Amino acid sequence: MTALKSPKTPKKEVPLTSLPKPDLSPRSSKAPKPSSSSKHPRETQEKKKTGKARVLYWHRTDLRLTDSPALCKALEIEGIESFWPIWCFDPEYVYKHRVGLNRWNFLLESMEDVSQEYKSLNEHQKLWVFRGRPELIFRKLIKDWKVTHIAWEKDSNAYSKVRDEKIIALANELGVEVVATPGRHLYDPDEVIKANKGKPTMTLHQWQGITSKMKGIDQPYPTPASLPDPGPSDLEDHHEEQWGKYEGIDLNADVRTGKDTCFDSLTGPSDNPFSVPTMDQLGFQPATTTIHGGTNEGHRRLDLFLSDPEKVSTFSKPHTAPTALEPSTTLLSPYIKFGCIGLRELWWGCKDVVEKWRKNGGKGETKEPENMFGQLEFRDMYACAEAAVPHFERIRGNSVCKYVAWALQNQYDDNGNEILPRPRDEDEEAEKRFEAWREGRTGFPWIDACMRQLKHEGWIHHLARHSVACFLTRGQCYISWERGMEVFDEWLIDWDPASNPGNWMWLSASAFYSQYFRVYGLVSWPQKTDKTGALVRKYCPELKDFPDKYIYAPHLAPAAVQEKANCIIGKDYPSPILDEHVEKDLCIARLKDAYHLNYHGNDEDVLNGTAEKKLKELHEANGHTHTQKAEEDEKKRKRSGEGALDKFIKREKK
Ligand SMILES: Cc1cc2nc3c(=O)[nH]c(=O)nc-3n(C[C@H](O)[C@H](O)[C@H](O)COP(=O)(O)OP(=O)(O)OC[C@H]3O[C@@H](n4cnc5c(N)ncnc54)[C@H](O)[C@@H]3O)c2cc1C
After folding, report:
1. Taking a C-beta distance cutoff of 8 angstroms, is the pair 235, 267 a contact?
2. Residues paired with residue 83 on neighbouring β-strands, in sequence order
3. Which of 157, 345, 437, 503 to mutate to test ligand 1, by most ligand atoms within 8 A of the CB atom?
4. Whole-number Å distance between alpha carbons of 118 and 543
5. Residues 69, 112: contact at Cβ < 8 Å?
6. Which of 96, 125, 181, 478 is a plausible cystine mate for 118, CB 3.0–4.6 Å?
7. Residues 512/401, Cβ–Cβ less than 8 Å
8. CATH class name, domain 428-653
9. Among 343, 344, 376, 379, which residue has the most ligand 1 atoms within 8 Å of its CB, making it the best to mutate?
10. What is each CA distance from 338 to 103, 134, 342, 478, in whole angstroms?
């Protein structure tokens, strides 16, 4: 294990009242290795019958030991006799959520890493991994292991709340104490929403106003330097329950190998019980990403960022480069998503560095929202919106989402449930555009490179996310943001239930942002940070020999240039699927209509279909349909004596 600096000495003293006493110290003090003469846990327990609490610490998206308020709170429980850090591999997650191979891989690596961290504190410890539905597992463990407390890091998003409620109900039924502690955000979203009178925070300014009246952000919490022993680990599995039973559709079927053994038994293979499953056991093919999970890798990246005071102090998100081959931002999002690093470590680490930089006369310090603090605040702002808005992840029923008559919107049955698997939409053209976008073959190299990078790596730069999301929705394709979000749900390693829908609503000008007329250019935008098209050459290798001049618009290259580059557009690389400028104008016009009618996802007219009808009528009346637009363009061209492609070439020459 690498010795890591603590960003700041914690000011918070954690009272250590429990017996045996876990040692909580800052991460910088490397955990002592257990001596080779350590006794077997059961033997040790015989001698120390001092305590009576038997605690399960349930890891979810907090795969770290550092800066964990929830873990600290769990270790403070009075009189701990046995302590098991556990993980439940839930079939609902494995089958019901779209999760790409890169995120699976990252998760398993992070679980393995945290398990090793536990081992380094106490040789009898590890991450105890179970395979099955948490409510069944907890029932069994409470009975068989005589558990008295269940502790976890509380999250406020809709997914977690449903899961938490089940376990809380079970604990109440069986007389077990629950210790759920927030820690995934700078401020507990539930508290912020309460302070905002139950309303979501829809601007950063609003979030800042509310939190400025709350207690300041906690300092990083200390890392345990020792850990109580686990209790007995025998657990009879008579297959009395179908631990991994799942009857819905397997949304990850397309990335499976056809054989999955993860849920064959509650505790995993008999020769390695409670172990972290492998990709193979989960039935998955290998991942493709170069981004690796783990609290150690997360801290290495964090330390690297903090070791550059100028970079930290002058960080300005709009000035980072989406075209860079090496990430020009921190690439900490996957580690934040899986809780491999603590948020307070990053926040106070940056505060410390910036303060020193200032004292040393550093110049050019950036301010919120573009600096690092602003980035983390945006994350909290979305969490406080998601937790307060039912159906935040879709249009229908979502009170903050403007209604636009997008193509390929989610379909619902009479009971309001989404129809899955999704029937192919009647709008063939939109389906084709969507597939081309997803697969990175739109004929616009910047979009295609970003989408191919996303699929391959599970991460792309924030402004690359802007580009592809804008293109798919209000920029050119006029396709529902729900469809784009779903692809991100699957492919992003850093997928977050608040940040993903929140940012998709932002980019489609459905909420948080309203300047729908500002659209990213498919050539001009990437050219701002890289005229050579390095990212395109990497992810669209068929274009690698095009001269810089045509790298973002190879369809404009003369035939001789295409031949020389060994890539004929329309044969070796697709022709553009649409006319960038015509579609942009149409999209802006339709968004203007939608803003005029100003419907939201929970309006009665949206729920009963009237809004869509009214909007389409308005588009028709205003001349905002493809046919009307084509006729109008044709007339204009005839008047000016222009050929169909002339304007592209002129634009290119400018
Ligand atoms: C359409 C779209 C979808 C997105 N989906 C997600 C998602 O599912 N999960 C996710 O973590 N981020 C999402 N983002 C936000 C942002 O793109 C990523 O957080 C960022 O690119 C991660 O890279 P980084 O760690 O290098 O970021 P940095 O610039 O180094 O920022 C540091 C941290 O700040 C937070 N952050 C920065 N910008 C945002 C933002 N706009 N919204 C929320 N948090 C932010 C992240 O935790 C990030 O790790 C999305 C953005 C867009 C446009």
Report:
1. yes
2. 55
3. 503
4. 48
5. no
6. 125
7. no
8. mainly alpha
9. 379
10. 10, 19, 10, 33
pLDDT, tens digit, 9 for 90 and up, residues 7-43: 333 333 333 333 334 455 444 333 223 333 333 333 3
Helix (H) or strand (E) holding 153: strand 149-154
Is residue 377 annotated as involved in ligand binding?
yes
Residues 163, 134: contact at Cβ < 8 Å?
yes
Q: What is the 3-state secondary structure (H, E, C) of 22-54?
A: CCEECCCCCCCCCCCCCCCHHHHHHHCCCCCEE
What are the pLDDT digits (tens) for 138-183?
999 999 999 999 999 999 999 899 999 999 999 999 999 999 999 9
- For the Cβ of 508 lying below 6 angstroms from any atom of ligand 1, the answer is no
Instruction: Tell me the CB-side half-sphere exposure of residue 246, using CA atoms within 13 A.
Output: 21
Q: Are 332 and 301 contacting, i.e. CB atoms less than 8 angstroms apart? A: yes
Rounded Cα–Cα distance for residues 546 and 148 (Å): 67
Residue, of 440 and 35, whose pLDDT is higher? 440
ipTM value greater than 0.95: yes
Reading across the β-sheet that carries 80-89, which strands appear in turn?
A: 128-131, 80-89, 53-58, 149-154, 177-182
- For residue 244, give Cα distances in angstroms to 239, 263, 399, 490, 603: 10, 5, 36, 22, 39
Strand partners, 479: 407
At 278, list the tokens.
């492998």
Q: Cβ(228)–Cβ(80) under 8 Å?
A: yes
The one-letter code for the residue type at 579 is D
Query: Measured between alpha carbons, how far is 63 from 448 in angstroms, rounded to an integer?
Result: 33
Q: Check whether 329 is labelled as a binding-site residue.
A: yes
Which of 459, 494, 505, 525 best tests ligand 1's pocket when mutated (most atoms within 8 Å of CB)? 494
Task: Return the closest-CA partner of residue 493 out of 92, 152, 87, 61.
Answer: 61
- Distance, CA of 50 to CA of 24 (rounded, Å): 20
Pocket flag, ligand 1, residue 504 (CB < 6 Å): yes
- Cα–Cα distance for residue pair 435/521, rounded to 1 Å: 21
573 beta partners: 569
Residue 191 main-chain phi, psi, to 5 deg: -70, -40
Tokens of residue 419, six digits: 């129809």
380 in a known ligand binding site: yes
Asked if 27 and 300 touch (Cβ cutoff 8 Å), the reply is no
Distance CA 399, CA 457 (A): 34
DSSP lists the bridge partners of residue 85 as 57
Residue boundaries of the structural domains of the chain: 428-653
pTM over 0.90? The answer is yes
Q: Which two tokens stand for residue 170?
A: 């079970």
332 is in an annotated binding site: yes
Nearest to 128 by CA among 58, 53, 68: 58
Nearest CA to ligand 1 atom 22: 333
